[in-house]
Specification:
heterodimer; A: 275 residues; alpha+beta; 5-stranded antiparallel sheet; 5-stranded mixed sheet; 6 helices; globular; B: 530 residues; alpha/beta; 5-stranded parallel sheet; 20 helices; 15 strands; 51% helix
Chain lengths: 275, 530
């Protein structure tokens, strides 16, 4: 176990850009991470003092969160445990408040960028390579902008897709339960992971599709859509990550389908081809 | 042979095999969850009942109900019903409620019946709630003991003296002497003190005749609290050669005048008030059902039933808790408080105070009454219970008044919205309890029909059947489709069957039903169907 919270941050790869003077006062501090742009404050940390000092840190950019506590030779007494629990609750509350502020800022930024961008052309290299059309996408310079909206249509964040296919999200934006929708649902609604898959599904079936950006967000999106469309047939279209242990794509689609009483569709390849 | 390494999503599929292959894969989507297995069916007459809302009672009454329930590990329903029985015992004949604020009043006599199997600590529950009442009766007995002995002695000697004077008069030949003896007899009669009895609040077991006398003797009010069903045997005529004698009971609930003029006894009671708080085994209810007269006379419709699920088998024997002495003392104080001004002069009856409903409470009560009315007509959900639901609005007014008096005290001016709201919420819960009770009683006609349909299904081992099949097979029982539909709906709600549409080529679809396989496989093991 790391001796100090600074060691723990270093081992998690979250180095502050310059030496961080972290007070053990339970207040959340934001700072620039090494490798980030000047002026950005994507890193955060909070430290508590006491018989067993503890804290937490993370990055709004990668959404990762880590907890840390000082090594102790003896177990905490019941009173200490109660105090720690109370402080943990305070940390959670501070984190939640900070997250709300960060997400609000991301919403504003996403809206500005979205307004500044222009409708994407079908000639964008990524779209060409994927053999798909642009359904409501926008383009800013050479970046494709994919909007992530909630059930009410509020734009929360953007996914940026570069010409080389690399993808990233706007820092700190809410993604859980947000999706990119193509088409209007009639009798059924498909849910896919990425925008490219969603576009292909729409082109192939003509049915409305929601892209949820990652398999980890599939269940949250499925639940949200189920609450909006209780009578629709929801089909969770999985990525078949058969080479990854646990096949996260199919596993997440199944879990989401189970949660909303939906169906699961998996791409059926003729995998074995004669060379 | 070679395997393509990166073919994972629908986009890849479209690239390799085209959009048609994508559409095919989507069309072959499979449900993530297998169709749900059949839940365990409920056999008609064994309805599951909802729990009592915890906030029906307030203050010391709620505390005591909660404490008794925790201490005895019994369902909260038993405690709630006992509290209502106790409140009715303390307040009946002293107060009435006028829902419309006019001449129509409901007395506060209340009949509650809790059905709970043997071994579910009914006696302990009843004992806990009746403690302060038993104590009060004992106190009164001690207080009146000397007066009773003195009065009895005076009455006894006066009677003997009258007897002797009568004998003397029989032998007397002189008219003048006879006149003097007659005068003495008259003086003795007039000087004989009125009989004095220690006040009583309740009895456990009695005959109809003795109950009439008790009502007469105890200022026209009496209650029966018992954890045994003996009183039903009395009603059924156990002590009157099998002839039912229900009048005293029925009149005691309604508060209608009672005039008994029989050889050897007379009892004139203008406004009797009789409450019941019974706790019996469910099996005993079936015995009660043996009497058609009980249902036809409206006797069964007068009870508010609680049929809670038994805790037996789920109790934690190590989790024994005693009733907190503070809670017990507060409850006793609450009972004593309501007994203030209870006693009246021997031979007199208490003055009745009428509580109106507040405007908001009245609106609530009228809404509920209309809801009941709208659903108890022909084809309504309460049709098979309409004799019971007909009395429910009145019972709600009674319960609301009892709750108001219990919480606001004897000075309460009117029934508040709050008390009425809780009385109505209680009534809504009591409806399924009554359905369960009438099922146990075998007197819910829809349940009886449903059981008949299940027997027919079992006899033919049908896995599916159409509504038409059922009607043709049981034409005598189901003269109308409506009646059959109601019965099948009940079976559907009890997970015995599930309705579906059977498509017919070139003809309209038929209403068909799948039978819960558990009913077919192990039918004989399910109680109620043998």
């Amino acid at each position: 176990m790391a001796n100090t919270i600074h060691d723990a941050m270093a081992s998690a790869g979250l180095h502050p850009h310059k030496a961080l003077d972290l007070c053990a006062d339970g207040k959340l501090v934001r700072f620039r991470l090494m490798g980030d742009k000047p002026g950005s404050r994507n890193g955060w940390a909070v430290l508590h003092d006491g018989p067993a000092p503890f804290g937490a840190f993370g990055s709004w950019k990668t959404s990762e969160t880590h907890a840390w506590r000082a090594a102790s030779s003896r177990p905490p007494t019941p009173a200490e445990r109660a105090e720690i629990q109370q402080r943990v609750r305070a940390v959670r509350l501070a984190h939640a408040q900070e997250r709300t502020a960060v997400q609000a800022a991301a919403r504003t930024k996403a809206q500005k960028l979205w307004e500044r961008a222009h409708p994407a052309s079908n000639g964008h290299p990524y779209l060409v390579r994927k053999r798909i059309r642009s359904y409501g996408l926008r383009q800013l310079r050479d970046m494709l902008l994919v909007p992530a909206r909630d059930l009410q249509g509020t734009l929360h964040t953007l996914q940026f897709i570069m010409a080389d296919g690399s993808k990233r999200f706007l820092t700190g934006g809410r993604i859980a339960g947000c999706y990119f929708a193509i088409g209007r649902p009639t009798d059924s609604l498909l849910v896919a992971e990425g925008m490219a898959t969603a576009s292909t599904l729409y082109a192939a079936t003509g049915r409305a599709v929601a892209a949820c950006f990652s398999c980890g967000n599939m269940e949250a999106v499925a639940r949200a859509l189920r609450s909006k469309f209780p009578g629709l047939r929801l089909v969770l279209c999985a990525d078949d990550d058969f080479k990854t242990p646990g096949n996260p794509g199919v596993t997440a689609a199944r879990a989401a389908a189970k949660a909303v009483g939906g169906y699961v569709a998996v791409p059926r390849f003729k995998r074995e081809l004669t060379a | 042979m070679k395997t393509f390494p990166d073919l994972t999503d629908f986009n890849d599929l479209a690239g390799i095999e085209g959009l048609a292959a994508v559409a095919d894969s989507v069309n072959q989507a499979t449900p993530a969850v297998e169709p749900p297995a059949w839940p365990e069916p409920m056999i008609p007459g064994t309805l599951r009942t909802p729990d009592m809302p915890e906030d029906i009672l307030q203050g010391v009454w709620a505390d005591m109900a909660r404490a008794v329930s925790a201490s005895t590990q019994t369902p909260p329903a038993l405690g709630v019903m006992c509290v209502l029985g106790v409140l009715a015992t303390l307040l009946q004949r002293r107060f009435e409620v006028a829902p419309h604020g006019d001449d129509y009043t409901e007395p506060l006599a209340l009949w509650v019946l809790s059905a709970s199997p043997s071994g579910t600590r009914k006696t302990a529950v009843l004992g806990a709630f009746m403690g302060p009442i038993v104590k009060w009766e004992k106190l009164q007995y001690d207080r009146y003991r000397v007066l009773i002995a003195r009065t009895n002695a005076a009455r006894s000697t006066a009677k003997k003296r009258i007897e002797a004077l009568n004998q003397q008069a029989a032998k007397c030949k002189e008219p003048k002497d006879l006149q003097a003896i007659r005068q003495d007899i008259e003086n003795e009669e007039l000087g004989m003190p009125e009989e004095v009895r220690a006040p009583r609040l309740f009895t456990g077991d009695t005959t109809a005749e003795r109950l009439q006398a008790m009502l007469f003797e105890h200022s026209e009010r009496m209650a029966v609290h018992s954890d045994e069903p003996g009183i039903f045997r009395v009603m059924a005529g156990a002590y009157s050669g099998g002839a039912q004698n229900l009048d005293v009971f029925l009149q005691g609930h309604a508060g209608s005048a009672m005039r008994i003029d029989r050889a050897g006894r007379m009892a004139h009671v203008d406004k009797p008030a009789l409450s019941f708080n019974l706790m019996v085994q469910p099996g005993m209810l079936s015995e009660v059902a043996g009497s058609k007269g009980f249902r036809d006379s409206g006797l069964l419709a007068r009870f508010l039933y609680a049929v809670p699920a038994s805790n037996v088998g789920r109790r934690d024997v190590r989790a024994h808790t005693s009733i907190d002495p503070g809670v017990r003392a507060a409850y006793e104080q609450g009972v004593t408080g309501l007994l203030e001004g209870y006693l009246c002069e021997p031979g007199t009856v208490p003055k009745v105070r009428v509580l109106p409903l507040s405007d908001s409470a009245k609106e609530l009560w009228l809404d509920f009454s209309q809801y009941i009315e709208d659903n108890q007509g022909d084809g309504g959900v309460f049709e098979s219970l309409r004799d019971w639901t007909s009395k429910l609005a009145g019972a709600v007014a009674r319960v609301a008044a009892l709750l108001e008096l219990a919480e606001a005290g004897l000075q309460a001016e009117a029934v508040s919205w709050c008390a009425m709201d809780r009385a109505i919420r209680l009534a809504r819960v009591l409806i399924p309890h009554a359905q369960a009770a009438f099922g146990l009683l075998g007197t819910d006609s829809t349940d009886v029909d449903a059981l008949a349909v299940l027997r027919w299904v079992r006899a033919h081992d049908y896995e599916e059947f159409t509504r038409r099949d059922a009607q043709k097979a049981m034409e005598g029982r189901f003269r109308s489709v409506d009646k059959l539909k109601r019965t099948l709906d009940r079976l559907d709600a009890m997970d015995c069957i599930k309705e579906f549409k059977r498509h017919n080529k070139g003809a309209p679809p038929s209403a068909a039903y799948r039978v819960n396989p558990m009913l077919l496989g192990s039918l004989s093991t399910l109680s109620g169907l043998s």
